[in-house]
Amino acid sequence: MVDMGGLDNLIANTAYLQARKSSDADSKELQRRRRSLMLPGPQSCEQLRQALATDFHSLCEQQPIGRRLFRDFLATVPAYQEARGFLEEVQSWELAEEGPAKGSALQGLVTTCASAPVHGHPHPFFSPALVTKCQAATTEDDRASLVKLAKAEVMAFLQDQPFREFLASPFYDKFLQWKVFEMQPVSDKYFEEFRVLGKGGFGEVCAVQVKNTGKMYACKKLDKKRLKKKNGEKMALLEKEILERVSSPFIVSLAYAFESKSHLCLVMSLMNGGDLKFHIYSVGEPGLDMSRVVFYSAQMTCGVLHLHSLGIVYRDMKPENVLLDDLGNCRLSDLGLAVQIQDGKPITQRVSEPPLAQRGGTELERRGEGCSFPGQTEPRT
Ligand code: ADP
Ligand code: MG
Known about the structure:
Elements: H1 4-20, H2 28-36, H3 46-51, H4 56-62, H5 64-76, H6 78-95, H7 100-114, H8 128-136, H9 140-158, H10 161-167, H11 170-182, E1 191-200, E2 203-210, E3 216-223, H12 224-229, H13 233-245, E4 254-259, E5 263-268, H14 276-281, H15 290-309, E6 312-313, E7 322-324, E8 330-332, E9 339-340, H16 356-359
Antiparallel strand pairs: 1-2, 2-3, 3-5, 4-5, 6-9, 7-8
Helix pairs in contact: 4-5, 5-6, 5-11, 6-7, 6-9, 7-8, 7-9
The structure holds adenosine-5'-diphosphate and magnesium ion.
């Protein structure tokens, strides 16, 4: 998966390679790298175009590249610019900190809806019923729930004609090119390996760098032999599948997954700031200031809410699994014990007892009593 940060990085590095073009024109290595950063030609996307399900939610909401290209497309069509602008304002209201500015942003949104025309040329996406309700809204709660409704109406509008036009536009061609690009297989040769960041039950986690872009990640290497011995294969697969589904700034995200002869490798967001256990017990006086407790708790709660919205139960909340990045934001990591709820059935197994259907039915010794490969955390600087 190429995230938007990765995309910016890729663009920056392409520019860098471009800049060096004249001085190093002969370098074969450089030419090879430059080629590897180029998007595949449109003709190589036809197969994917036929195969890919054109689902609005997945293409234009869930996937960062699709979301951005869809918004770029909307900006080029005058009739859709209003919808795009409204969604942007809703988003900045949603992300705004509590306070008077947030209140006035909300008021502004409701006023926009309330002043939409309903007779003559009715508004293209706000229903007359919504407009009337917005005119009568008095409380903050009313306003907030009306804005949610308004957002849903805009999304319903966009899923129809605008989405069909997007699929026929060069923006969707570009999306397919990115998809084909990200589907290229990677191997350990794609990365430069750096220092060990920590040790897990099935192997080390190392810092790695994508050779062609310079972007840094953490690579969790799961030793195949150890996995086999401990019946952990299904579990590793489940961890990968769950990581593939999550998309939250509060959970480590999976960038690549591949296997070498000896390891299964999960390449994830690099969290350079150490884990919470290290910060609680090993930095200065034991403990954390209340303001930090509130901050981390809020971020962890957002991460857990995201998992719950996907029907995933985390089951491994502890300070060593909450990792900090360079900026001091935290993410939940280690989804090795997370489970997906199947058909709404409650989870009844203990954590050391994996669900039979999902994990092969063998006792998971890894974390239970007598565990021979305990997950340990090495403090990082
Ligand atoms: P396990 O599932 O075996 O417990 P973890 O996923 O918890 O393995 O990883 C083991 C250790 O590696 C962690 O405690 C942490 O110190 C380090 N680590 C894991 N993921 C990252 C990451 N994304 N960035 C930096 N360090 C990490
Ligand atoms: Mg762990």
